[in-house]
Amino acid sequence: MQIETIQNLFLKNKEASLSHRYITNKHIEPVLNKLSKNVSIEILGTSVLNKPIYGLTIGNGPKKILMWSQMHGNESTTTKALFDLLNTFISSKTETSHILEACTLCIIPILNPDGAKAYTRINANEVDLNRDAQNLTQPESKVLRTVFNSFKPDFCYNLHGQRTIFSAGATNNIATVSFLAPAQDEACTVTSNRTRAMEIIDVMNRALQTLIPGQVGVYDDAFNINCVGDTFQSENIPTILFEAGHYPNDYARDITREYIYISYLTSLDYISKNAITGEYHKGYFDIPENDKLFLDVILRQVKTNKGLVDIGFLFQERLVDEAVVFVPKVDAIGDLSRFYGHNTINVNGLKVFNNNNEEIEIGYENDFVIINNEKISLFSK
């Protein structure tokens, strides 16, 4: 499929009822009702707090793809893009029917509904589900494992979101989308199974480079059998980690969702039309490994009693009245010359004060600082 075609499909099929960062069962259930005539929907199990975990099946082809999102409850961008994708399959059949004829998709839009409601990474028992793949101590982990065993996927899409700190390599390029073909052994061997995942990632990367050049990264493939992706990969099912990252001024992640959507359709189109052997995987190794070189705000050349320093802020995500708000918090003070800011303010040797007219210290939280007796917002205009 041509990129322009996919972009037009996104604009036509974007699910308008889902936006920003706070996505829960309450938000998706009306959409599920709308989709129910065209998608098989079932309750796969329940969470710690007895909330339903929904499973959706669409397509009737022999190639089976298992996709799950919000294993970490506060990582919702990939969920929004899943519903954009489902709308596309239903309303744009001419362009996408070949995918559903070749593939069957099993989708878990919110694996961790308790974490989604509380807007936390962990579940209600304070367990990271992505470290529970072996022990299966949590009901949500057991649901995913049961589906994996019964559906018997040919490919797995492990869908996540990443923080604003990540750069694509040691550069000032934001890692807007990141991928990983997880290792399946301690030696991180490039097995034939992994090369199949790498081949698909290379296809997605090449598509994204035409839109966000230099803004795609891959994660370190250090092996951890307790992680779901590593476990499934070790069982010889090609598994791909998707990470929805930052785009300039897109803290709502409603621009990034389009790049995730493009990744979905590009990869599913490729799988539907090709026998994935791993032969064409080498481009994967051209994707730079993520580094942590970004802060949300950097104040440059701040005058203090210890000389000129830089002050770096990271935004804290807080759930307030069922909405996510961002609170700047001082994370680092000193020489931050190796870091980049999503918003950089050159103070030019002036002093910077907090809301009590005191010098800034680590841990200070507010959406403004005072420079030269003027309140300066820490949010980009």
TrEMBL record:
Residues 14-271 form the Peptidase M14 domain. The active site is at 243 (proton donor/acceptor). Keywords: Hydrolase, Metalloprotease, Protease, Zinc. The keyword RNA-binding does not apply. CDD domains: M14-like. Its cofactor is Zn(2+). GO terms for cellular component: extracellular space. GO terms for molecular function: metallocarboxypeptidase activity; zinc ion binding. Belongs to the peptidase M14 family. This is Peptidase M14. It comes from Siansivirga zeaxanthinifaciens CC-SAMT-1.
